[in-house]
Amino acid sequence: MEKKELFRIMAAADGSMLRELAQPLAEKYGVSVVKAPAKTLAMIKLREPVKNSLFYLGEALVCDTVVELGGTKGTAVVLGDDFDKVSSMAVIDAAFNRQVSELDELKIVLQRLSMRQQREQELENGLYAKTMVDFQTMDQE
Asked: How far apart are alpha carbons 5 and 140 in whole angstroms?
């Protein structure tokens, strides 16, 4: 599992669910906080589609932290100010970096979570699709 996919899944997950995944890892390997969770602002960069140039949309409130799990660092940044969630994400990141023995079952749980998130997104997209206007049929009237 790539880091981008891992963080996409964790960012959309519930904080309590991530805590349930991170707590046994923290207890087994020991966690030390390198950088305590803190609120900060991050610039949101977007690509403008016409000229294909980058611009800054604005700032967003994020929470970031750095932890060590058994001597291996893990970092996390998440939109909002959920300190518990970002801490759990950093512990899981450190577990991936360390290649802990529980990694295979952790990947399975995260894959299931990803599939559930995908299904929920498809259901939501289906609800929105019902409200879309087809401008082609409007021209024919």
From this structure: 44
